[in-house]
Each structure stands twice: as structure tokens, then as C-alpha cells.
Amino acid sequence: MRFKLPLGDRYYDYHILREIAFLVYPLSYWRHSLIREFLKFASTFKYVPDNILEVGCGNGFFTKILSYRFPQSLITSIDTSPKSIAHAQKRRLTNVTFKKQNFFDMTGKYDLIVSLHVFILLDPDNAFLKVRNLLAKRGVAFITYSGKTVFTELHRRFYKVVVGDEIEFKNRQKLIDKAKESGLLPEVIEINSGEGSFALILKRLDNGQNSKEV
Ligand SMILES: C[S@@+](CC[C@H](N)C(=O)[O-])C[C@H]1O[C@@H](n2cnc3c(N)ncnc32)[C@H](O)[C@@H]1O
Question: Which residue ranges form the domains of the chain, and what is each CATH number?
Fold first, then answer.
């Protein structure tokens, strides 16, 4: 029998719970590591990305950082949870449009796609193909995952009870292989050993000088 708390599938709608969770060490430390590595990665940019897509923005915690880091960019931050979007909109970030939208229904081209700990929930085949289609020719994606450690195993058990979903740990090498099969060039950045977290930096394989598409 599957035990499920009343919180169940609406976990993402309970923002107070999520905000309190991030006050707890080591979750706050892991979060800080993600931000630090993203800012390091962003410091290597040779141009300002015109259009940025954030996938699974949740309550907009990271959107705020994106907005401050790239004040001249147009940022689209999406999430499937309407309550997450309503909460994120309260942040009043002038260069951000928050939308209740499924990533797989997105259209357009983006110079930067960012997603923190959302692709752990998505099927990698479809997700990488979608990233490939949404990336502008010179575009780049920063996608983070958590890995299997003692701490994250405990966290996923908690998640299973509270949210009701079982999330399998993704095999890093398989993700790399799938990204390549989807026409992407992957590179790995290690983030935090306690969380086993890492980012996949994805560029289009056909971003060379001879390609005509923009
Ligand atoms: C683990 S939370 C991460 C939230 C946020 N990125 C953060 O780091 O705090 C995953 C989020 O992804 C959203 N999500 C899941 N599947 C999605 C999809 N296909 N399209 C857009 N958002 C999605 C969920 O509603 C949830 O808010």
C-alpha cells in the first residue's frame, strides 16, 4: 500500500513549506552551491543573452538571481504549477515574464536555457530533443541534476512520502549519451559532492560557422 500524506501532489503549491525547507542546512548549502556555480558559468559569457528561458521556476527563487544577473535580457520563466507562478509573480521582476506552461509545449529560440533540478523529473530523450529545438544557434543550456548520495537517497524517500512520486536517479553517462544523440554537445560541471549535484552544459552540435539557421 502506498502511503501518501494529504499534501500529496500539491507539494509544489505549498510555497511556505518550500521556503522553510531551504532554510534547513544542508539544503540551503546545496542551493548556494548551485547559484555559485551558475554565476561562475555566467561569468564566462562573451555576450549578453537576449532571450533566456527558465524551466520549472517554482516560486521564482532563482529567477530573482537570473533577473539581477542579466538585467538587459528578456527572461521567460515557466512552471506547470499555477500556484508557483502566482507566487513567483509577486516578486515583481521587471525583465521577467512568468507563465504557467509545460516545457514540452514551449516554442521560440533562446540564447540561454536554465533549469535547476527539474530535469530529474523529465524523460531525458524528450527533454534533450526539446532543449535542442529551443536553443538558438549560439545558445547554451545550464541544466542541473542531483545524484545518488546518502543524503539525497533520504531526501527522495521523504519526497516519495510527501509528493507521492518516485524519482529515479539518472545515470550521468546515460544522460551524456542521450544528449549527444539529441544533437547536443554536453559538458559536465561538478557542483556539490554531498548532493551529488552536477550541471550539464549543453550546446548545439551544429553551432558551427557553416550552419545557416539562427
Ligand atoms: C524540484 S522543483 C524545482 C523548482 C526550482 N527550479 C528550484 O530549484 O527551486 C521542480 C519544478 O518543476 C516544475 N515542473 C515539472 N515538470 C515541468 C514541466 N514539464 N514544465 C514546466 N515545469 C515543470 C514543477 O512544477 C516544480 O515547480
Answer: 8-204 (3.40.50.150)
User: What is the 84 CA–ligand 1 centroid distance (Å)?
Assistant: 9
Q: Which residues line ligand 1 (CB under 6 A)?
A: 12, 55-58, 61-62, 78-81, 84, 102-104, 116-118, 121
Residue nearest to atom 8 of ligand 1 (CA): 116
Work out the end-to-end distance of the chain between its first and last CA atoms, rounded to an integer number of angstroms.
Answer: 52
DSSP reduced 3-state for 198: strand
Cite the DSSP H helix spans in the chain.
Answer: 15-21, 27-42, 61-69, 82-89, 124-134, 150-163, 172-181
The CA–CA distances, whole Å, from 183 to 177, 209, 212 equal 10, 16, 16
Per-residue pLDDT of the chain (214 residues; tens, 9 = 90+): 344 455 555 556 666 667 777 777 778 899 999 999 999 999 999 999 999 999 999 999 999 999 999 999 999 999 998 988 999 999 999 999 999 999 999 999 999 999 999 999 999 999 999 999 999 999 999 999 999 999 999 988 887 877 777 888 999 999 999 999 999 999 999 999 999 999 999 999 998 544 444 3
If you measure from the C-alpha of residue 115 to the centroid of ligand 1, how many angstroms do you get, rounded to a whole number? Answer: 8
